[in-house]
Amino acid sequence: MDSTPSASSSSPFDLVSSALGRYFPSGGAAAAAGPADARDDRATGRPVPGDAAAGGQERILGAINLDRDLRITRCNLDAPVFAGLDAVAGSPFVDLLPPGDVPTVTRRLRQVLESGEAHVARIQRLRRGDGSELVVSLSILPAAVPQEGLTVSVIAMARRLHLYAAETAIGTSLDIGETAQSLAESLLAWGDVAAVDLDFAVWTGEGVTERAQRRIRLRRAALVPDRAWPEGYVTPGDDLPGDASRLLALAVRRADAPQAIVIPDGAAVERVLGSPRVRRALVPGDRSAGVACIPLVLDGAPPVVLGVAEVWRRADCPFRDSELFDLQELVARTVHHVDLARQHQREHTQVLALQRRLLPRTGGDTIEIASVYQPATPDSAGVGGDWVNSFPLPDGRTALVVGDVVGHGLGAAATMGQLSMEARALLSAGLAPDEVLEHLDETVTLLDDTESGLAAGYSALGSTCCIALYDPVSYHLALSSAGHLPPVLVSPDGHAVPLVVRPHPGLGAEFALREPFDVHTFGAPPDSLLALYTDGLVEDPAVSIDEGIARLADAVSAVHPWDGLQQAARQVVSALAPVHQRDDVTLLLARMIGYRKGDTATWRLPARDDAPARARAQVSALLRRWGTRDDTRDTVLLLVSELVTNAVRFATGPITVRLIRAGHGLLCEVGDTGNGRPRLGRGGLLDDDGRGLQTVHRLTTRWGVRWTDTGKVVWADVAR
How many CB atoms lie within 10 A of CB 507? Predict the structure, then answer.
C-alpha cells in the first residue's frame, strides 16, 4: 500500500492521506486496546458501528484512489481498524462492497465522475476478506483533474460517531420520503436490510392519534439497500397487506406500550408471520432470517406510534442487547425529524391544494388561457405565495392577475388567498386595475399590524401583483403593476417584448415610499400572446434577471398560433426551469382572440333629448341585420332607450352606445361622462325616480357599472 504522498501533490487523495498523521495521533488509551481486541471483535462478523471502535483505535480515517474505470490505483488503509479490507491496486472498488450495495454505490461513483460534485458522508458497509463487515462513513471526492478519477475517504464508525452522524443526516430534509430513507440508511449499519414503514396518516401529513389496531394501515416509506427484490415483497410506496400491518402494530405494542422486539431466526419468523402472503411481503430473502422491530414513538400521554423500523440480518449474526439498545437510541433521537417532515407534508399539501384551486380553469370565446404551477422542492421552506388567476368580467372583458406573496407556508397561503379573492371581487365590481391595487396595498398594510401580522410571525410587506384587463372589442390591454416583473407580449408576427411599466416598490410599502399606481394601455390584436409569471421562472443565480426575462421572451416567441397552449406552457416551463427549484414557478399564457368586427357596433351620440330615439333606430337596424328574434329585439330596444334616457338626464357630454353579439347573449353598453353610481331602489308605484333601473333589472340577466377615465359605463346582458 502506498501511504507516502508526494509533498508537491494537492490531490484529494494526498490531502486525506496527509491528514492521517496530522489529525489522528497515535498512542494513548485508544492504542491500549491492542490489535488482539480488534481481532476478537472482527471474529464475530457483526456489521455494527462498534466494530473496533468501542474501545477505539487511534486512527479511523482512510483513503482510496480510483481511476475512471472505478479500479483502485492506490490506497492508505494502514490503520488497524481497516485490517482485512483487501484493497489491492488494480482491483475493482466494488469488490469491497456487499453484493446488494454494488448498484447504488456504483451509481453514486459515476454521478461524481460526471458532475464533479462531491458525495459526502453516507453510511456504508465494507466487506472484509473473512466475510465480516465494517461500517464506515464514506465520502466520494472528485479529483482536481477529471481524468485522474476519484478519491474515496472512509471513516470507521465508532458507536457515538455513528449516532451523531446519523442524527445529523436524518435532519437535513423536510421531505417525508427522504427523511425515512436517511433513517433506513443509518439503520443498515446493524443489518443486511433496513426498512421504515409509516402509518398512512404520517405519509400523507395528516394528524396522528391513537386509533383502534384493526384500522392500522402502514405504507413502506424507505428500503435499503437498492436491489431487485423478490416478487410480492413490499417496496417503497406500497401499502403493507392488512395482516402484516396489524401484526407489526401488535408486535411493537406489547403490554399496551410501544416496545422494540426481536425475532431471532427463520423458524421464529415462520411461526410469528404464519401466512405465506405476509412472509412474502415482509421477509426480504433467505439470508435475512432475524429481525429487530423498533417503533417510531412520539412522546406524549399516551405516546403515539408513527410507524415501525425493521432491521433484518442473517441468522448466524444474532442481535445483542447492546445493539438493540443502540437501535432504540438512534430511532428515539431521530423520530422527531419524521414528525417534523409529517407536519411539513401536511402544510405543503394544504397550501398546494389552495394554490391549485386558484389556478385558472379555462378561457372563453374571446381569449384562450393556459397555466402551469410548479411548486418548490419538498425540502424547501414550503410552498410559496405565487398565484395566478384569470376570469371573465360581467362586461365581456377578461381579467388576468398574477401575484407573488412574500414568504412560504400557511401564512403566505392565507394572504395569497385573501388577495386573490379581493382582487376578483373588486374587478368584478367594475374597479380599474390601479384602484384594485390601491385596495390590495391597504389590505397588506392592515394585515401587517401587530395583532394580525407581526404577532403571528409573518409579514406580507413587499408582495407584488400585476393586473391586466383585456378588452376583446378594442383589442387593448389595460395593465397596472405593483412591483411585479413585467409581462411579456408576443405580437402576431412572433416578436416578443417585455412590456414597459413604471417601477413600483410593491404592496404595503412605507408611506414615504408609496407611489400612485399607473394604468398602461397596450395594443393586443388577435393572435397576440401574453405571458404573466413569477420570479421563480426567470431567476437564475448564474444570470441577471434581465437575461432571465429575455430567455422567457425567446421561449414564448417560439409558440405558434396553432400550438396547443397548455402544452406550449409546459414546454416553456421545462425549458426555463427543468428541475424543481427552491422557489415556486408560475406561468400564465393568454392568447388573444377578441370579437369579430361584425359582432360589435359602436355609436357616439350627443346628450340631447333626441338621443334615445336615434339610439333605438341605430340598434333596430343592426339587430335586423343580425337576424335577432322579434321578442329579443323589442327587449334590447327598450333597454337601450332606458339607459340612454338616464344618461341624458343625469350626465353631460357625449354618450357612447355599444352592442356586442357574444355567444348566446347580447351585451349592451351605454357610456357617459357622469360620475354618479346608478342604484337600484325600492321606488313606490307612483315614483318616477328609479323606474328606469327597475326596468333594466327585469329585462336583463345581469347588469352593472364600470368606471372609466372620463366617466362610467352601464352594461347589461340580454339572453337571445
Answer: 29
